[in-house]
Amino acid sequence: MSNLHTTTENVLIDERVRGFPPGNPPLALDAIGKQGWKPYDGRMALPLISLDRQAFSGNVELMMAYVKSHGVDIAPHAKTPMSTALAEALLAAGAWGTTIADIRQAAVLLKAGQRRLILANEIGGAAAARRLAALLGRYPDAELHVFVDSTALVEALRSAWQERVDLPPLGLLVEFGAGRAGARSVDAAEAIFEAILAAETPAFRLTGIAAYEGAAATADAAETV
Questions:
Q1: Is 90 inside any structural domain?
Q2: DSSP bridge partners of 77
Q3: pTM of structure
Q4: What is the pLDDT of residues 27-74, one digit of tens each?
Q5: Quick one: which of 29, 74, 139, 175 has the fewest CB in 10 Å?
Q6: Alpha carbons 221 and 204: distance in angstroms, whole number
């Protein structure tokens, strides 16, 4: 795996940024690592995220070996650190793309040069669909797949994509309910599938199914499965 890197501008950082030691003079971003600060030495403001590069590299190598051995592609979720450098390192190690949770996060990664994204959430209604279209109009080479769990959302996205000719293809993933969002029955899912298939074009198409399993766990392991 290549070394982590970032193209972030070398801006000044001060205590308005989480983790920066209060009272410390502002520092250029490229000078932060030279200070020798540690999350456990009492100087940095908590809470914050720190990274052990050796552990990260080992975890990436183990995970990619596991998924490849099962013939699976993954798009790791970027929402917790929202670090373009970490996302790029995962792509370099063989990840198919990156997962994000909302339109703003999509904007961050698109601006950083990433083009394969899964938006693992419903975005809202017609106004959100237009915002997503406005963003993707700037990235005609993007490949984005978004969760949908209602015919209303399918129609909102279809309308936004029909209004413009400068948009990249949009992939629709029908979400089945597992405790959070998603279609709550087979009949509801079939209605969503039918709405997508009736509106399909080369730029607006069904690309799969989806589920968020994180809210599906119960105290009974067999029931969870």
A1: no
A2: 99
A3: 0.85
A4: 998 999 899 998 888 889 888 888 889 999 999 999 999 999 999 999
A5: 29
A6: 38
pLDDT at 92 over 60: yes
* Contact in structure between 121 and 147 (CB atoms under 8 Å): yes
Tens-place pLDDT, residues 111-140: 999 999 999 999 999 999 999 999 999 999
33 shares a domain with 2: yes
In a domain, 17, yes or no: yes
Three-class secondary structure of residue 191 per DSSP: helix
Q: Are residues 134 and 210 in the same domain?
A: yes
Domain that holds residue 168: 97-224
Q: How many CB atoms lie within 10 A of CB 210?
A: 21
Rounded to an integer, what distance in angstroms lies between the CA atom of residue 69 and that of residue 164? 41
Angle at 185 (CA atoms; ends 182, 188), nearest 5 degrees: 80
Does residue 148 share a domain with residue 61? no
Max CA-CA distance within the chain? 61
Residue 202: how many other CB atoms lie within 10 Å: 6
CATH no. for residue 175? Answer: 3.20.20.10
Q: Is the pLDDT of residue 181 over 80?
A: yes
